[in-house]
Amino acid sequence: xxxxxxxxxxxxxxxxxxxxxxxxxxxxxxxxxxxxxxxxxxxxxxxxxxxxxxxxxxxxxxxxxxxxxxxxxxxxxxxxxxxxxxxxxxxxxxxxxxxxxxxxxxxxxxxxxxxxxxxxxxxxxxxxxxxxxxxxxxxxxxxxxxxxxxxxxxxxxxxxxxxxxxxxxxxxxxxxxxxxxxxxxxxxxxxxxxxxxxxxxxxxxxxxxxxxxxxxxxxxxxxxxxxxxxxxxxxxxxxxxxxxxxxxxxxxxxxxxxxxxxxxxxxxxxxxxxxxxxxxxxxxxxxxxxxxxxxxxxxxxxxxxxxxxxxxxxxxxxxxxxxxxxxxxxxxxxxxxxxxxxxxxxxxxxxxxxxxxxxxxxxxxxxxxxxxxxxxxxxxxxxxxxxxxxxxxxxxxxxxxxxxxxxxxxxxxxxxxxxxxxxxxxxxxxxxxxxxxxxxxxxxxxxxxxxxxxxxxxxxxxxxxxxxxxxxxxxxxxxxxxxxxxxxxxxxxxxxxxxxxxxxxxxxxxxxxx
Length: 514
Ligand code: PFF
Fold this sequence. Notes:
Largest sheet: 2 strands, antiparallel
Bound molecules: 4-fluoro-L-phenylalanine
Shape: globular
């Protein structure tokens, strides 16, 4: 599978692909239960503040870096300063780690969508404990992502986003409309969502909102750098950032209207208390919403199908961006074909997602579980990436973008330089320090588990630094143009009958000249 042109073909395609990456299970599954646990719309305010002060700035920084580098994340950071290249490697490692648990969640969504007519009610724990089923659906999910990424940026990622993003928005509007018209309990649900309870906000809610903003906007993990590297010169970076942030906030906000009125209605008609329904828990989307849909007369199954299909589709458009970051690096560094690189990474992440599925399933079912530092592997990877590594990587993007500004250009004017050099990094550092304290000593008492997670993150960062300076600093790590060259070389090989194999690596000098 080869494409004769790398890069997005249109501005809309680029914006939709970036929005597709941003809108995913973070918005649909993560946000509703976090908003419940952290004071309703009080959390929404903090989340929007994080998007404005941190997310929008970091996204502009990442798009600009990508546009400047026109290469994978390692080469991009390296091009700005050879000392910063390790951050590019961190930006490859993070999506790799996220994929290992995102496949499991994607598999859940797929299973629940396919099962809508057979009924999902009460199925979550038994499904999570039916490992064969989970692995099969994670595999299907990973396979779909592989096919799209293997088809290329324009023919795969862009085309998919153009079709699927409007579908997600359409489905969500329909579901919210149904939820808002269910009758009894709906107004209480809306009030619960929109009435802010600031007393429930604390340092860890702010940290959670920042993590949520980064995760939801796909920042701090190379995605927006990789997508920016494929954007056309005519794309306005600030325009695209504004579009993605607005779409993300609107979808997140709408999701509250899809969930809370329906759950409150269900509670009102069945008499099941809200605390039993686990509003602020992990199972809100899969457990509670399945019960809620099953109870809606006539159209319940259809709404369930729309809801979980929307989740599965949103998860696909997100996971392809994760896969693309790692694929781009492998193609360019090792000069392999796109389809082979994508297949290789998909297989490894799928294999690694199997223990994650076991660990999550057994922990949900309260049986003996594979755990690390007191957390099941799902939580462990989630906290390590979301709370620690992604903010660090976003911080490094701000540092790199500050260097970029020195070279002039549109972003060196206005408020952006002050934000990216001082305010956003300072906020990230402060919130990160609170986050680390909260992990090591939650509520003032020492937590060995939290400490273990912090150590894990430090080890991973040290590993990236060591591998980068050991293997990549002095070596050529490629750029986007290489993909075209690899394809051209393959065409020649086919004509001349040369043996199949990896292409001749260029010398470092050749790359530096470009
Ligand atoms: N933004 C996606 C979501 O909200 O589910 C998740 C995600 C995708 C995170 C891509 C990070 C990323 F690079």
